[in-house]
Amino acid sequence: MSCKGHLLLKQQPFMPFGIRTLDLNQPVEPVIEVPGYERVLLVLKVGSRVAGIAVLAAPNGEVTEQTLRAYVADDPDLSDRIDRLKMREKLMPVQDDAGKSAPSWSVVVCTRDRAEDLRRCLESLVKAADSQGEIVIVDNNPPDDSTKRVARQFPVKYCVEPRQGLNWARTCGAKAASGEVLIYTDDDVVVDVDWIWRMAAAFESPRVAAVTGLTFPLELESEAQALFEFYGGHGRGFERRVFDESIIPASAAGLVGSGANMAIRREIVLSRKLFEQELDVGTRTLSGGDTYAFYQLLDLGYQVVYEPDAVVWHRHRRDDQSLKKMLYGYSVGGYALLMRCLAEHGDPESIMVGLQWFKHHHLKQLWRALRAKPDALPMELVLTEWRGAFMGPWAYWLNRWATRKKQGGASP
Amino acid sequence: MSLLCSVVIPTHNRAQHLNKLLAALATQSVSADRFEVIVVMDGCVDNSPAVLESWRTPNRLPHLIGIFQAQQGQARARNTGATQASGEVIVFLDDDVIPSVDCLEHHLRHHQSGQPLAVLGQARIELSETPTLYQKIVWAWWEDRYHQMLQPGRIVSYRDFCVGNASLRRRDFEAVSGFDARFAGYGGEDFDLGYRLLKIGVQFVFEPRAAAQHLHHTRPTGVLRNMRHEGAHDVLLAEKHSELLRGLRLMQRTQMAEFLLSSRLLSEWMVKLSTPLLWILEGLGFRGSWRKLFGKLRHCCYWLGVGDRLKSWEDYRRFCESAPEVPTIQADLRHGFPDEPLPVNPNGPTFIQLRVRDDSVLGLVLDEPLDVPVNEAVLDRLLTRHLNELRQFLNQPDADTENA
Question: Please, where are the H alpha helices in B204-334?
Fold first, then answer.
């Protein structure tokens, strides 16, 4: 997410960021209060639409309206977007939001051994649910019945997938669900009240096979969380975009969004067996099951819509070890995916996409870290990403051999 | 018992498709003895007559007429078929369009009112397991088109009139004296007919339930040839209806267009020589480059087609300048919808400029003759129709998409 957060992040010692939402259609208070914090991440909305964020210092838990105005005026993209959103509210308040017959939906939450996170997630989901759909909980290879006990307290469908791996859980959810679109999310998120219908309503034409949404941090209490948010994060900007193969090469599918906030037509998930591979969390490739699904969809000629009006709030891992593991996992998964595109789909564009990614992300981050730029990622994390980048292609082959062996062993 | 409708099918050497199509017609929800089928074989040299013969039995298609003509193009073939028609309603189907069971029923349901209507059905392509790059483009194009046509409150255009799966009253067809046979080769004739129908007050109805499967078979080279026809036909269309010129693609001058029109022979060879590159790029899997090249070639072929009729850049410029001014109205939407209705041209297209932001203007051509002043409701419909353009305009997606 591009913002000035990393500059505040560099000022030691680390201080947590408070998070607040402001509607710019309402008059802004002269002093915006964030009690208990010295820094703040403001989510700026125009009506129900997100215009952008502002990351500010908040001495004594206060930000003045003037500071915010100066920040907005200083960022031409942000102020332009606010203007355009206000214009849009005025011009098409009706066509954009109403009159659309949204398809029926099933929210699928894949979870493993995180009962408390799941409870918070379900509480928000139940509020967002309307009569057009259902909520499905997939318990992936549960070690005990804690998840089941939480699920029982909510009006949800509960099912168990004994094979460990996020992709198996996603497939299990797809089979258990009955809605036209499957809205996937993780157990460590809280969703906005209008999230479900905005995701469902974004399926406006039969060519749209998938929709992704915007993900904000639920809290930025630790340095690891802030680092993840300001350097990697799930955000894909604040502009609505429609991707297809004429916009990006299919192998750059990582650009369209992530599995914590995505929706796919159920019929396509099942008929194309989108998730029925050994991929993602719980396997050697560590991540990328969602990206591979997007790859296949783009490859088939479908569109994927990025809908920034559909917002979820993700609780990033608090400890440094998890942050490292996550960044490593993204790199491994990303390059394993590109290897797969090359090996199984004969797609030479994946080489170019891989080189571009390496140049624009990994090389650039290393260069910045070496020059000790103010917005540089800590060297330790840069090296973690590099390790992941080199492990990725291997992870793909190891995974493939292991899968073959398993299949060979299973058949008599 | 009188016939409900006449199905007119022009065909050219596609006996296999024809067989499927006739099979689908014989099993319609409308009883087969209530409609007639007129197949016009336009220079057929395959076994189409035999296929026809096999379906002409009392329990299959009792009213099946085959007409043979030397190859004269689809427009004339459809006219030939229509003159033989005895039903009150004519349903035009292309020979690669396989109607679903209740397709005719849905066409006829609208015509029961007796109003001057043209019913446009859909002919969707089914995406195969492993589609080629080209199939994906064609599929996407049709899907987007049908999706656009389904938008509520959308204002129709003469370009909605695609005759692959469409029906109209025979009376209206005769009133505008049918297709213009000067549109030889691919396309154009339906847009021309559509415009003339709109002018005499025929209303278009898009009926997605009048569904059919489109067995699309053209290959990239076929499309390039069709694009060339399209260029020539756009010129012809503007010659016939000069008020349409403003909205046509040939008004968008580019440097490339100037080059293509000034040195036609050279550009023709360039196109010919670079077409095989498409196969190489596709074989190697370079889809992005394939797309770019295919887009460029299509563009070139369009302008070669324009050049086929207008010969030189000078002629082209003179042609564009000779076009009558289309009335232009301006609406300032910066502060919401205007209170006063805007005046429009009741006899033809109107060019509408919407000022939505301080720095830019969105131009729209309204090609349906409108006899109502543009008030908030009409502007609202306009915006709905052009919602995607407007959305893009308001969103201004950034160009930075290359980097993963």
Answer: 220-240, 255-262, 264-284, 287-310, 313-322
Look at A239 and B356 and tell me if their CB atoms are within 8 Å: no
Contacts of residue B100, defined as CB under 8 A and 6 or more positions apart, other chains included, come to B24, B211, B212, B213
Task: Compute the distance between CA of residue A346 and CA of residue A17 in angstroms, rounded to an integer.
Answer: 46
B234: Cβ–Cβ under 8 A, 6 or more apart, which residues?
B188, B248, B249, B250, B302, B305, B306
Q: B41 near B67, Cβ under 8 Å?
A: yes
A73-103 pLDDT, tens digit per residue, is: 898 888 878 877 877 776 655 444 444 578 8
Q: pLDDT tens-digit profile of A23-54?
A: 998 888 889 999 999 999 999 998 888 999 99
Rounded CA-CA distance B194/B199 in Å is 9
B292 interface with A at CB cutoff 8 Å: no
- The edge-to-edge listing of strands for the beta sheet with A17-23 is A17-23, A39-46, A49-57
Closest CA to B404 of A298, A355, A46, A375: A355
**Complex ipTM:** 0.81
> Is the CB of A87 less than 8 angstroms away from the CB of B403?
no
Nearest to A356 among B285, B357, B404 (CB): B404
User: Rounded to a whole number, what is the distance in Å from the CA of B46 to chain A's nearest CA?
Assistant: 35
What angle do helix axes A349-357 and A320-345 make, rounded to 10 degrees?
A: 160
Which residues on chain B are in Cβ contact (under 8 Å) with A99?
152
Q: Which two tokens stand for residue B218?
A: 């053209």
**Is A207 within 8 Å of B143 when comparing Cβ atoms?**
yes
Q: Minimal Cα distance from B334: which residue of A? A: A87
Contacts of B296 (CB under 8 A, 6+ apart): none
Closest chain B residue to the Cα of A89, Cα to Cα: B336
At residue A231, what are phi and psi to the nearest 5 degrees? Answer: -110, -30
